[in-house]
């Protein structure tokens, strides 16, 4: 039986008259990279915000290691959703120092996470002068400070150049070997294909497919099939 660090059961979330997430049941294996794929507006960010405690589900449940999610579980979760939360007038080290003080963590964590994301040589350079890729890596460093078992990354390669994408891909692939499970959301098929061990495809708020990434799999055809089916389903209920 597969060991799942995270499961959601029939998770639902609506905003006014729009159903953003409709009875989604994810199963995320421990020490893996789980790619949550879907078109823009499919419900990916809403799903991740519920798991991260930023939104409250209307119904359904979230299980962490087989137990009902509580706010105490946030100490096990690292999150980078939307733009990295940086003080642009501070250095990388100073940004991390602010967080260690707030979280009551030792300064030793600063050097540890800077090493993980390869930002040890930025010196006095302020975060506002960083490239987009460096900002993303600093955002991940902040998310890693509390030594999470689960790391949530929402569209982390948005706006990056090919070198930045490659560097971030290698960093994300290294995490399962360090005991960190990653949930990675993206609308970029090639990115998920090269990074994830398992995928879920969400369209119109519905999880249309979930399974392991297999060699030779035509992910584009599968994605289009799921997206088209749930687009038709949404239209039929309009």
UniProtKB/TrEMBL annotation:
Protein name: Lantibiotic protection ABC transporter ATP-binding protein
SUPFAM superfamilies: P-loop containing nucleoside triphosphate hydrolases
Domain of life: Bacteria
Family recorded in the similarity comment: Belongs to the ABC transporter superfamily.
Keyword Ligase annotated: no
Position of the signal peptide: none
Statement: the UniProt record of this protein carries the keyword Disulfide bond: no
Native species: Paenibacillus tritici
Key words of the record: ATP-binding, Nucleotide-binding, Transport
Pfam families: ABC_tran
Xref: InterPro entries: AAA+_ATPase, ABC_Gallidermin_ATP-bd, ABC_transporter-like_ATP-bd, P-loop_NTPase
Residue ranges annotated for the ABC transporter domain, each copy included: 6-229
A molecular function GO annotation: ATP binding
NCBIfam families: galliderm_ABC (TIGR03740)
